[in-house]
Specification:
With 301 residues, the chain is of the alpha+beta class. Helices cover 31% and strands 18% of the residues. The chain has helices at residues 24-32, 46-54, 107-120, 139-142, 169-179, 212-224, 258-277, 284-295, and strands at 59-64, 73-77, 86-88, 94-97, 125-127, 152-153, 185-187, 194-199, 201-206, 235-242, 245-251. Strands 5-3-4-2-1-6 form a six-stranded mixed beta sheet, with helices on one face. Strands 7-8-9-11-10 form a five-stranded antiparallel beta sheet. A hairpin with a 1-residue loop joins strand 8 and strand 9. The chain is globular. The model is unreliable at 1-7 and 27-32 (pLDDT under 50).
């Protein structure tokens, strides 16, 4: 049924006698926040989209809009000041943030809405934190698939400003405060979606592309066989879910650098893929291991 737009406190046009906000307005709101389980699915490098939204403090990546949307070069980033959703810098560069506060169930649509709004703004303008985005295109509709997301981890938030932008004492103080919050992070090059981080101790957080059930089965097979570690002194500590993907987490041996884990990660990737591809039912020890994995939800973000 098509419902015309009315005030939230006005009678619902359907004739129920209820206020719109308590009748079809509520249905409209539920539809607006309908959850998309894997919002970045079908985008190239989905695992990196998830990692930049969830675990990387500062990073940028160049993408391009389709010809329908102007074939514009855009910078995807983790975070912008004041929790802005997007920024059209004075030098013409357009940045869109993934780590924003949104109320919708489809981050792809929300980010695309902010991006399109920023493209239409005059240089020197920002898109603030957004309410629910209405129906519209998603990133999958807006971005050129020939230009995949390739993140570059940044060690500060200098990307907020153009190279020749003035830096007043207030701007410098804000940058210094923001930079102090960044935890040392590095993107592994030997495998996709894996990020080393030092948070007092060293960890590896690895966004995986496999379906959740298949990945957990594979991890359970390895864990039951005591092969879920990641090199000498590293141990699997659990996983969390984000944007429809599972992100396993390993605690590394003290002092392990990002370069040190490149080889073990490459080797483990092949082992895990083989375990995921196994089709035999889980054995009793593997089922127990899987139950343990499901209960070991970590919050290392």
């Amino acid at each position: 049924m098509s419902i015309p737009v009315v005030g939230q406190r006005e009678p619902c046009p359907c004739g129920s006698g209820k206020r719109y906000k308590n009748c079809h307005g509520r249905q409209r709101e539920r539809a607006a926040v309908e959850l998309v389980e894997r919002p970045f699915a079908s985008l190239a490098n989905e695992v990196d989209w998830v990692a930049l939204r969830e675990v990387v403090p500062a990073a940028t990546a160049g993408v391009r809009t389709t010809s329908e949307h102007g074939a514009r070069d855009v910078v995807v980033c983790t975070l912008l000041p004041m929790m802005w959703s997007a920024l059209h810098r004075e030098d013409g560069t357009v940045l869109v943030a993934l780590q924003t506060t949104t109320h919708g169930g489809d981050p792809s649509r929300d980010v695309a809405a902010a991006l399109l709004e920023a493209l239409a703004l005059e240089p020197g303008s920002a898109v603030g934190p957004r309410d629910l985005a209405g129906p519209g295109p998603r990133l999958q509709d807006v971005l050129d698939p020939a230009v995949p997301l390739v993140p570059v981890v940044q060690h500060d938030f200098e990307y907020w400003l153009a190279a020749d932008a003035p830096r007043s004492p207030d701007v410098l103080a804000s940058l210094e405060e923001a930079n102090a919050s960044i935890t040392p992070t590095a993107r592994l090059t030997s495998v996709a979606g894996a990020y080393w981080v030092r948070m007092g101790r060293e960890f590896l957080r690895w966004a995986r592309p496999e379906p959740e059930d298949a990945l957990l089965d594979g991890l359970a097979r390895l864990h039951a066989d005591r092969r879920s570690g990641l090199g000498a002194g590293a141990r699997f500590v659990g996983a969390f879910r984000s944007c429809g993907l599972v992100v396993p987490v390993w605690e590394l041996a003290p002092g392990t650098g990002a370069d040190d884990v490149e080889g073990p990660a490459r080797t483990f990737d092949a082992v895990l893929r083989a375990a995921v591809d196994e089709t035999a039912p889980l054995t009793a020890p593997e089922r127990r291991a899987r139950a343990g994995l499901v209960s070991r939800q970590v919050t290392l973000r």
